[in-house]
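request received
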Amino acid sequence: MSFLKKALTKSPWVFHLSTGSCNNCDIEIIDCLTPRFDVERFGVMLVGSIRHADIILITGSMNKKSVKRVKVLYEQAPRPCAVVACGTCSCGGHFFRDSYNTDTPVSKTIPVDVYIPGCPPKPEALIAGIVKALGKLDEKRKNR
Amino acid sequence: MIKGIFYFLIFPGFLFTAAMGCLSGWFDRKLTARIHWRVGPPWYQNFVDFLKLLGKEIIVPADSMRGLFLFAPVTAVIGATLLSVVLWQPNLRTDSGFLGDLIVAIYLSMIPALALIIGGMASRNPLASLGASREMKLMLAYELPFIVSIATVIIKNGYTIRLYEMVQHQAAHGAIIGSPSGFIAFIVALLCMQAKLGLVPFDIAEAETEIMGGPLVEYSGAPLGFFRLSKLMMLFAMPVFLITVFWGGIAPGALGAAVGLGKLLVILLVAVLIKNTNPRLRIDQALRFFWGPVTVLAVISILLTLAGL
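response:
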């Protein structure tokens, strides 16, 4: 079933989930869609509903209110589905690590496949991360 | 029997319409990308999207009406396929159709929108219901001017409601679009097509940035793929409808096919340009637009037709 593998890696739809970020990572994600980087060349689309997603792109420091929501959204996503933590906050907590109202890092709440560090990560790094996530996505498809 | 199956499933039915629809969808995406000064997706992108969705998990929400939820996308694809089959009969000159197939084509062109409403309502998601109710209002808005503009064509073609006779009449007397009243009716139908396809000034029902895909919000995997496919098929079938009714149809032979493709691309080009240069309207603005100026234009075209222009 090599064409199914090809289909999955040629058309990753990304759901963008902010867990209380400072908006920097989110701007960099939008940057990837602009003419300079244009990820639609590779079939990447930002989708509005979690039910359409292949990749969940998490930004932000995971404040305590969003923990519950992130769990629900992760369970609602159709499998196979990869989780990418974008930015230092969601990867390791950054300076919100010891904060009273955050539950960093994201991997404490849901399993994360790919980490993209940076504050914010460059669009090149984001694209490299999404490409790594495609490999993970394909592994998950095999193990289903 | 075999011929009938071939006709419905392969050419010009499901497979042909789906393939052409995916390519029309690619034309739309690529052109949009070029307008944005981007590179845009490769030509096979829509095929790949559909295949990928077939391989994904199908989630049926716990509270939804399961049967209806899964049946609606199939209905949408069937409606688009049948519309294409009815439209290609006169264009291929294979069969003279039946009396009133124009009316049947108008009804069939509503089925994908109806299926979207049913599917959205069945998924029991508040956003989906909101999208479905918007789609319903939009249908009420655009069907009136659309049918009035088709009435112009019926009068101009000598009161025939048979697609085959329409194409023959236009071949003998010149395309409807060539006359002033016909051109006005064509513009009205083009605007209605924009709303029927859910392209941007009228993508009120789906509004990705506002209600997260509207009726499609709970759909995943293969049913989502079928809904997207039905939209792409309509993106091909509706321009063919307009070409058949207003623009003299598609002539047989290689040259005729090339000219037909040119007409299709011109209609798609206009639709994509409108899509990329307009912001989304609110539902009340769309309703006012369609029942106000657009319907007035359609009535003017009927009056001009009766005056002999």
